[in-house]
Amino acid sequence: MGKRAVYWLRQAVQMALLLLLVSLAVDWWRKPAQPQRFAGQGLDIVNGGQTTLTALSSGRTAAVYFWGSWCGICKHTSPSVQRLHEAGIPVLGVAMHSGSAQEVAAYMQENGLSFDTVNDPQGRISRRWQVAVTPTVVLVKNGRMIHSTTGIGSYWGLRGRIWLADKVY
Question: What SUPFAM superfamilies does its record include (predicted)?
């Protein structure tokens, strides 16, 4: 490998590390806070049924996805979250300020989204979690928040975080 190639490889690695550090810092700054006793609270799913974070994440990592039908970045992240769901990873969406349960269900059907979703028309749930940015993905294991990330998320980026959470927690 020539000197020029080594130089550019070193530059690329440094840039990747810098981007990773900035991303981690932004995630830490925007980190939501799980409300006390929320893990056992019954949550009504838009298409029927009920769940809890404890049931959803018992013994494995689940993704709680705060999104909105009005959110432009969510339109890019939602397909990645759908792929997680299709891969067997437990996913619970929280549709923030997105209308009635019927409107949320219609939006999800139109966009090919089938993961369980709770409607949050007035933003009460997201306020309790102190979610400041959409989209926000919170990883939960055994009912407890273990990691979060905000902004656009790729399937492999989210999948990697879930894999790491399963190994560490």
Answer: Thioredoxin-like
CATH of domain 32-168: 3.40.30.10
Taking the C-alpha atoms of residue 38 and residue 152, their distance in angstroms, rounded to an integer, is 26
Q: Tokens 């690329």 sit at which residue?
A: 12
Q: Which two tokens stand for residue 85?
A: 């769901």
Distance CA(57)–CA(47), nearest Å, equals 20
> Which tokens go with 41?
């609270």
Q: 53 falls in which pLDDT band (50, 70, 90)? A: very high
Rounded Cα gap, residues 40 and 9, in angstroms: 49
Backbone Cα Rg of the chain: 17
**163: how many CB neighbours lie within 10 A of its CB?**
13
Supply the pTM of this predicted model. 0.85
Q: Per-domain residue ranges for the chain?
A: 1-30, 32-168
Cα distance between residue 73 and residue 80, in whole Å: 12
